[in-house]
Specification:
single chain, alpha+beta, seven-stranded antiparallel beta sheet, zinc ion binding
Length: 375
């Protein structure tokens, strides 16, 4: 009887504002709770909480036994109270992961909040908020695919992230301007749970580097340091903009990635299988997912500027092995692609539709003009 009463009380608490989504990743309908922190969490986050038992004690809302004191503690706390406490000094640039993000980001977010209390004590944010950071990361070699230790330096003052091929090298191997920098976690693609893909523009073409660090906190600190540097750069570049305007621009995950077949501009040569990445309005294609340089890039504008996506290929098309075609119409030419499955085709079409239905920003016209004048 007491068990049923406790369960009913906890289920009622889940209806309160803030408790209907996981306190850490915002997954809907959390079914677990930390009775030492007073929060409701999802199954996936509960596993991370179990790894820090000195901080968090976890129980199932519906399956475990609860005593009255524990239920009372949950009632007097809850997700909104915990957020006000544990996220009170969270800097706007710090990446707050959701249930769609990789395990590493979610684990380090939970540890930063409750174990290290980084957002209660600002001085603990030094590793990513100082404006300068240097250290060693394992970087994938462009030609042989081996990961080698390389020195990286991020300097907000210089507006750049640099890396050096030798520890004592005077000149960096690459200078990546903060203005054009992006970082996104790609554990599956890189084959390492801490794998980070960093991209930058060189001569208006995209360059990729793939890095990791054995220590999860270290690589997430690098990621947030890059976001902090971009935040401060954008604050200067757009002095009137609010934090909520700038934060979505700090780093971006790709809209979609995967294999398609493509043919060339004359559309007479055979279709070749390529790895495609949709990054904002740039559709890039690579021979291999871990290539440093794209083989080519296609700019995808908006429907107001005569861009559209069509299901299928022109009737005369030949040379495609995969049967599920997509045609992208731009003001200059048509691009033909083929997908292996109908599901792939629908996902790519939906992705392209979202991009095309979004009006172009003033700065995107300059990017489009560069693509039109590409040799």
């Amino acid at each position: 009887m007491a068990k049923e009463r406790s369960r009913k009380a906890l289920v009622e608490l889940l209806q309160r504002p803030g408790n209907a989504a996981c306190a850490d990743c915002a997954a809907p309908d959390p079914d677990w709770a930390s009775h030492s922190l007073g929060i409701f969490i999802c199954l996936s986050c509960s596993g991370i909480h179990r790894s820090i038992p000195q901080v968090s004690k976890v129980k199932s809302v519906r399956l475990d036994e609860w005593d009255d004191a524990q239920v009372e503690f949950m009632a007097s706390n809850g997700n909104n109270v915990a957020k006000a406490k544990y996220e009170s000094k969270m800097p706007p640039f710090y990446y707050k992961p959701t249930y769609l993000d990789c395990q590493l980001l979610r684990e380090q977010w939970i540890r930063a909040k409750y174990e290290r209390k980084e957002f209660i004590h600002s001085e603990k944010q030094e590793p990513y908020s100082a404006g300068y950071r240097e250290g060693f990361l394992w970087k994938r070699g462009r030609d042989n695919g081996q990961f080698l230790s390389r020195k990286f330096v991020l300097s907000e003052r210089e507006g750049a992230l640099k890396y050096f091929n030798k520890n004592d090298a005077k000149e960096p191997k690459a200078i990546m301007k903060i203005e054009h920098l992006n970082a996104t976690f790609q554990p599956a693609k890189i084959g390492n749970p801490h794998g980070l893909q960093i991209t930058y523009l060189k001569d208006n073409s995209t360059r990729n580097i793939f890095v990791y660090h054995e220590d999860g906190k270290e690589i997430v600190d690098w990621f947030n340091a890059i976001r902090a540097a971009r935040f401060h750069y954008l604050q200067v570049a757009f002095p009137g903009a609010s934090d909520s305007d700038l934060v979505p621009k700090l780093s971006r995950n790709y809209l979609k990635e995967g294999y398609m077949e493509k043919t060339g501009p004359k559309q007479t040569e055979g279709f070749k299988k390529r790895w495609f990445t949709m990054d904002d309005r740039r559709l890039m294609y690579f021979k291999d997912p871990l290539d440093a340089f794209a083989r080519g890039e296609v700019f995808i504008g908006s429907k107001e500027n005569s861009y559209k996506v069509l299901e299928g290929l022109p009737p005369s098309t030949q040379g495609n092995h995969w049967q599920h075609g997509i045609t992208i119409v731009t003001p200059d030419r048509k691009f033909l692609f083929a997908c292996e499955t109908e599901d792939d085709q629908l996902e790519w079409i939906n992705t392209f539709q979202k991009v095309i239905s979004r009006p172009m920003l003033p700065q995107e016209y300059a990017v489009e003009a560069h693509f039109k004048h590409k040799p």
